[in-house]
Amino acid sequence: MFALVASEPAAAAVFAAAAAVLGGHDPRDLVRQGEAVIHRNDVAQVLCCTAALAAWAVIGPAAPRPLAIAGYSAGEVPAWAVAGIIDVKTAFHLVARRAGLMDEETHEPCGLAAIVGLPGTVVDGICRAHALNIAIINGPLHFIVGGRAAGLQPALADAAGRGATRATMLPIHVASHTPLLAAASERFAVVLTHDVADTALPGGVRLISGIDGMPVRNLAGGLAKLAAQVSTTIDWAGCMDACRAARPARVLELGPGNALARMAGELAPGIPARSVADFRTAEGLRRWIMSAP
After folding, report:
1. Which phi-psi region, left, alpha or beta, contains residue 121 (left: φ > 0; alpha: ψ -120 to 50)?
2. 9-105+179-234+245-290 is classed in which CATH architecture?
């Protein structure tokens, strides 16, 4: 997960900040402990933040400006740090609080599942039939649904019966981006208001809001949306449309993994899209970034 940046001096402060909210555990050690640990909500969100911010610490200074930035699900908090609105320490504090609030407001077994190959109207009907909600719209035929665990497996069987090409549980145990976490959104809004200093949005940066794909125009409005996304459907397809409309020379996924880069490549095949995970060395990644016209 951190192979590319684990020993990069520029990322050292990011790993230290992550350890501070992981009970002193270095994230580079935690990722070797297996799925039982790294898929825990309170750990997973911090690890995803670490992957993004460690990579950006290494290659951010080489990235051409202007920038269009979007963060997927829990990645929206570190996206604010990449945009320069909050610092690394604040990002980790917010991610840890976000995860903790989501866990505290999860009072029964819950989770997320992927349904691929069915249109939104059909997926929405399946959700209504099984008391679920669409959590993330990844594309016209690619959805993440969430809710109580008791409804997820029947919904997946229903989706498979209707011709879904993929219907599978995800290793996530909270109903992210569904109304079941409305109380967590309300509590997170208080945290954001208290902990994010009032500041002007940086120039040369377009930060995209996850719930509607619209640029963040002011701090108060952006923070309200950032809190709301805990319990509101993420329109990732809309975010990708917004990024494509910015006509980027390159699309880079900060990771972990490369699923988002693949989605971006499918949406806009004419724009080079890569993930940090695609590179063997930090220097190779820097060269690719700096080669953008």
Report:
1. alpha
2. 3-Layer(aba) Sandwich (3.40)
- Give the bridge partners for 68, in sequence order: 206
Give me the phi and psi of 40, to 5 degrees please. -65, 135
The crossing angle, in degrees rounded to 10, of helices 182-195 and 88-104 is 150
Q: Structural domain boundaries of the chain?
A: 9-105+179-234+245-290, 110-169
Round to whole Å and give the CA distance between 244 and 246. Answer: 5
Residue type, position 258, single letter: N
Q: What is the pTM of this model?
A: 0.95
Q: Where are the alpha helices (DSSP H) in 8-119?
A: 12-21, 27-30, 35-38, 41-59, 76-82, 88-104
Closest Cα to residue 76, out of 282, 202, 247, 260? 260
Q: Fill in the amino acid letter for 13.
A: A
Per-residue pLDDT 10s for the chain (293 aa) are 898 999 999 999 999 999 999 999 999 999 988 778 888 999 999 999 999 999 999 999 888 889 999 999 999 999 999 999 999 999 999 999 999 999 999 999 999 999 999 999 999 999 999 999 999 999 999 999 999 999 999 999 999 999 999 999 999 999 999 999 999 999 999 999 999 988 888 999 999 999 999 999 999 999 999 999 999 999 999 999 999 999 999 999 998 889 999 999 988 888 999 999 999 999 999 999 888 77
| CATH superfamily, domain at 110-169 | Malonyl-CoA ACP transacylase, ACP-binding (3.30.70.250)
